[in-house]
Hints:
The chain is an alpha+beta fold. Helix content is 42%, strand content 23%. The chain is built from eight helices and 15 strands.
Amino acid sequence: MTAVEHHISNLLYTHECVIIPEFGAFVASSVSAQIDKDKNILSPPSKEIGFNRSLSHNDGLLVSTYAKEVSISYEEGKKEIERFRNQLIEDIENGKEFEIEKVGSLKLDSIGNVQFTPLKSENYMADSFGLSSFHFTPDVQVRPVKESVQVRRLLRPLSQKHIAATVALMVGLFAISPVVNDESTNEKFTASTFDFVKVEQKTESKDYVVNVNEIASDAIEIVAEEDLAEEENHFFLIAGSFKKEAQAKSFLKQIHALGEEQAFLLESENKRYRIALDAFTNKPEAVNSLNTYRKLKDFKTVWVLKQ
């Protein structure tokens, strides 16, 4: 580890933004304690390290603190930081992956954008010093579920054995008094047990078909509502994403200073605060604007958010 790398790592413990002049900045965002329910692992609060190519102006933090630490002048410290930056740029432009120990690695993707992969093993949250992730055993109480046997039987279809028993019972009843008088016509007729059973079967079949049609109709209405909600999505051109609103507002001021007065703060459902350069109603317009912005020096890492 070089002296500059070591100094960058130390600054991330006490600062939320460490800028390498004319290259980019490492931004630290606080993350609350996490619980992995699938693996039963509890992780302490930490800082999530990200990289922002748009923050490249020299704020003096890295140079001044480095010069003081190694006991050299500000100008000498500035030259050493520049040599470190030039070596970093040369390596990634030659297709190499530049690793900053305890921080992460940097490389260029296929279209020339800087990609940063943070090192997950280092926790830069000072309040979590000495704490580590640990596995726990969940306390689960399993309660038996009581089922209503009577209700389950009512919902089951009749078996052939039950139908046969019912028919036999009805035949026995008609055998006792097979003749029925029709008082309106003074005529006599014999009731057919099988005709009665057929009528009952038709009635049950008709009710069943109606219920299925009602369910199908409800399903169609739900799909239509989902399609309508999908059409209401918008596309935003994002210049930066932060977990803290204060960081996002500070970055928004810098964007406005670059002449992008139309930029605004966009809060998402996942509690991220994003800086949107513009909003669009369809994806082609957003992509066209994306390609235009990426040709500019300060907006090479913008991306499109669908929300």
